[in-house]
Amino acid sequence: MLKRCKKWLLSGMAVCLVLFMAVFACVGCAPPADNSSAGGSGGGSSQEETALQRIVVTTKPAKTTYVVGEKLDLTGMVVTAYYTDGTSEAITGYTVDKTGELTREDKAVTVSYQGKIAMFPITVVIAVGKALDIETADNAVYRIEAESLDYSNCVNSTDQTQPPAIEAGIASASGQQSIGGLSVVGNSFGFAVESKVEAELTIVARLAAVAAEQELDSTVSVLWNGESQYSGGVLPWDDATRNFYNWQNIYFTGLTLEEGTNELVLEILSSAPNVDCFWLIVSPTGEEELPLDGVAEKPEGNEPSEYASLFNITSNAAQSYRIEAESPYGVDYTNCWTTARDEGTTTASGGLCRSALGTEGNQFGFAIDSETEATFSLRMRVCCGNPVDQALDEILKITWNGVEIKTGCVLDFPTEEWEADPAAPVWFLWQDATVDGLTLRQGRNELNIQVLTDSAPNIDYFQLDVAGGSEEVIFVPPIAAAYDTFLTVENAEEHRYTVEAEALDFSDCVNSTDPTGTMPPAIEAPATETSGGKSVGGLSTPGNRFGLTVESAAEADLTLVLVLSSGTHGEQAVDDCWKIVWNDTQVVTGHTLAWNGTWHQWEEVRIEGLKLNAGKNVLDITVLAASPNVDCFYFDVAPAGSYTPSYGTFVNVESAEHAVYTVEAEALDWSGCDSSNNPGQQPNKE
After folding, report:
1. Domain boundaries of the chain, sorted by first residue
2. For residues 136 and 293, what is the distance between their CA atoms, to the nearest angstrom?
3. Strand 629-639 to strand 585-587: parallel, antiparallel, or no bridges (unpaired)?
4. Can you tell me whether residue 503 is helix, strand or coil?
5. Are 428 and 383 in contact (CB under 8 A)?
6. Cβ within 8 Å of residue 530, ≥6 positions away
7. In terms of DSSP H, where are the helices of 271-414?
8. Pairing mode, if any, of strands 353-355 and 340-342?
9. CATH of 54-125, one of 3.40.640.10, 2.60.40.3630, 3.40.630.30, 3.40.50.2000
10. Which residues contact 270 (CB under 8 A, 6 or more apart)?
């Protein structure tokens, strides 16, 4: 038994030894020559060594500068893929993130491929108009005025619904004009130059700081043919004078004028200077003199205009008369070097005001006529025009009928609010400057204002409070007016032209049922008994004003027929409720409208003996009191010289018997006469 067990043990040990040797031999054996049947275990190592590591735009597209609205052009672009094994290849099949129309905010393009990205920069500029053609490379200096450029891509820093301001009449600017209000980040403007030659070039920008010392390169990006340019220029600022027009010449040198189209584009990065002009110096020698012709001296003691009379005051009854400073037919600014009509100033009466008057020597004013003597107070609605407190009497010399008057008014500027938010409407914080105890004399009266310094307030309106004034303020508009053309007369042949009242512009009118001005006069439809089936009512607010322009190719005689009906519960004398002016001459109708219990009892009111001028003719109607309803206007045209006055019959002689007949002079028709005291008015009935 012991021998049998020993034999089994030795046999088992031998088997184990054989197995061990077999395993050892297998571990050291070489792999099969063909490993395709090895389950792809060797393939995993090969893929790891050749993995995609990165992509690079090794050649940028030929086009990297675009105009707003263009699409990306990848012509010429090469994208290279780099792998972990050190190999590389040019690839296709990548995508880009800019597929639509480009905007000025697009600064770079992102390329994507198998989870890897690369980027390259682009420049997107605005389209600029051609400002200059250059024919030769001869040394020459060319000037481009800033105010002649296209600013449709810009908004005004003080009113972003408006374009930047063209500041007219600045004596220190070339051409007496410059551009301001550009300081909105993202504003872009510029110009193109078409050249037949290649040449060296220097560009000089004539600029001025507007609030503080300004390092130009940090606030404005200047691109010449898509490449950024640097000047190192600094615009100085003097807090004492606060001169917005302290022009400095900023040089951009070492430029190339290329054959073909060249473009200068300026983009606002933070704030902007005022801009006067640009000079282009072709083939510069360093000895050029910049052409400052057109830079005028300030006016010295220029005489005021013979101001037009704006309205006629007929009594010394307590009443207030307002004159809007911005009205183009009100205050006369013809002796001013600069004055801006600020649109959209909602805190001003009428939403408009006047500014940019601050040039020493500016003079402006107005005249009024009065049929009586009266006392009144003059009120000026004004606010600071510079970011500093302003003593009005130190910057304006105000003269009434040749005598200087003082307001004693100091305008307070909210410096802290402005510094906290330069876009805040601090320029329109209106204050009243009042002068009491003035005399309105019978006849002509004149207000004249002269600017004494390079500073002036903004002005909203002037108001004359006669004998204490009244609660209701009535604006009496000037005679002259500008209305749209509603009628064109081609010749002087006899013909009737019709203008429907509802077609006119009543934007200067308010509805009598809503005198706050939120509702225009009512177009009443359908009133089928009127021409066209419509009429206009609700005009009965004193001061309402409307009219139209007639353009005529020939001189002719004219009879104007107004189709009206009473707008009150009773008779209406047309001349008591309307002031009718034809070509700056007041006319009267002598007509009284009947009242028959209806608003649409139409009557024809005839005004004969008028002249239709060749060119522009204006009909202007001002509401003085309760107003008629209006259907339409007939213009009866006849050849010049054909009009024969039609006089009324004042005496009937029944027989040849001796008799005395009396005709009172005041009963006659004087519509063909002017008063010698007041041409354009009919003679007075005394």
Report:
1. 54-125, 130-282, 309-474, 485-639
2. 23
3. unpaired
4. helix
5. yes
6. 563, 600, 602, 631, 632
7. 392-395
8. antiparallel
9. 2.60.40.3630
10. 185, 218, 219
Cis peptide before 291 (omega within 30 of 0): no
| Same fold flag, 130-282 and 485-639 | yes
Say if residue 26's pLDDT is above 60: no
Contacts of 518 (CB under 8 A, 6+ apart): none
SS3 564: strand
Q: Interior CA angle at 185 toward 183 and 190, to 5°? A: 75
Domain 485-639 has CATH 2.60.120.260: yes
pLDDT tens track for 333-376? 878 876 777 766 778 886 778 888 887 888 999 999 898 999 99
Query: Pairing relation of β-strands 473-474 and 363-370?
Result: unpaired
Q: Rounded distance, CA 486 to CA 632, Å? A: 12
Report helix, strand or coil for 250.
strand
Question: What's the per-residue H, E or C state across 6-61?
Answer: HHHHHHHHHHHHHHHHHHHHHHCCCCCCCCCCCCCHHHHHHHHHCCEEEEEEEECC
Q: Give tens-digit pLDDT for 368-401.
A: 989 899 999 999 999 988 888 899 999 999 999 9
Mean pLDDT across the chain: 82
Place of tokens 């607010």: 541
Fold designation for 130-282: Jelly Rolls (2.60.120)
Residue 373: count of CB within 10 angstroms of its CB: 11
DSSP summary character for residue 295: B
SS3 letters for 215-242?
EHHHHEEEEECCEEECCCCEECCCCCCC
Q: CA-to-CA distance for 61 and 598, rounded, in angstroms?
A: 79
pLDDT category at 488 given cuts 50, 70, 90 is very high
User: What CA–CA distance (Å, rounded) separates 247 from 234?
Assistant: 11
Could you tell me the pTM of the whole model?
Answer: 0.48
CA–CA distances in Å: residue 397 to residues 92, 141, 361, 367, 466: 77, 42, 10, 17, 22
Percentages (nearest 5) of helix, strand, coil residues in the chain? 10, 40, 50
Q: Whose CA is closest to 102, among 84, 78, 121?
A: 121
Question: Based on the number of CB atoms within 10 Å of its own CB, is 121 exposed (0-12), middle (13-18) or buried (19 or more)?
Answer: exposed
What does the alpha-carbon distance between residue 77 and residue 63 come to, in Å, rounded to a whole number? 9
Class of domain 309-474: mainly beta
First-to-final CA distance of the chain: 172
Distance CA 17, CA 42 (A): 33
SS3 category, 152: coil
Q: What tokens does 625 get? A: 């009191």
